[in-house]
Amino acid sequence: MIDPPILSVHALLLAERLDTRALERRGASLPGVLSLGELPGGGRALGFRWGALVCIGASLEQAQAMAARLRPHLHEPLDAPVRETARIAIGAAEDGVDEAGTIHLRDDAPARLALVAKALAKSAVLAQQEAMLARTLDRLEPQLERLRRGRLGVSSRLLVPLIGEAIAARARSAARVDTAAKPDLLWDHPELAPLHATLAAEWELAERTEALAGKLAMVREISETLLGLAEARRSRLLELAVALLIATEVATTLYGLAAP
What predicted TM-score, i.e. pTM, was given to this entire model? Predict the structure, then answer.
């Protein structure tokens, strides 16, 4: 029995957005997926407007070379691309994913490959968001530890930009790509719905999206608490300063009245 051909898949999240207007002339595209043409050796490159590149049947070096060619079309590129990888076996009796994580497809029809590419690209977006929110929570941890010890060392001037960055990044991501939504191409290929469900479960797209929403809610709750405490402390300090000024004024007036 001949083993089915194995294709390597590399998904690279490159930027906040990929400007596809100048690229759409290169070939036909499926709904929500831009075909960027073939790669040396027969590989295929697919792009997404929300800044992701997926190369199927290509090496990492080929994917990185394609990413370099796309650089003029990237808006707000990331400092370092977020990468996800997978393996596809073509010629299976049924679409699915085995215990080793290899994706088995009946054939290499463009719609099937695009479905895999989109799931992997969404996983890269989630990985970026997970890392970003984790950094935000790590930076909030010292403030929470001080609060646990009964001290409040937070500055609203430093806290607000930190929270704003996390919330804005997550909001931009949610506006660009709904990681839990079904792909548009299923409208034209409803027979691929079981494959989409399998891929979504393999990369836990819905669960990770929900977890991110929970972490963002936690960041908001923490920020509101810390900012509230910081504002209350500032109000108390202001009240104390006013009281001291009044006391000083009263003392000065009484001293003046008592002076001969």
Answer: 0.77
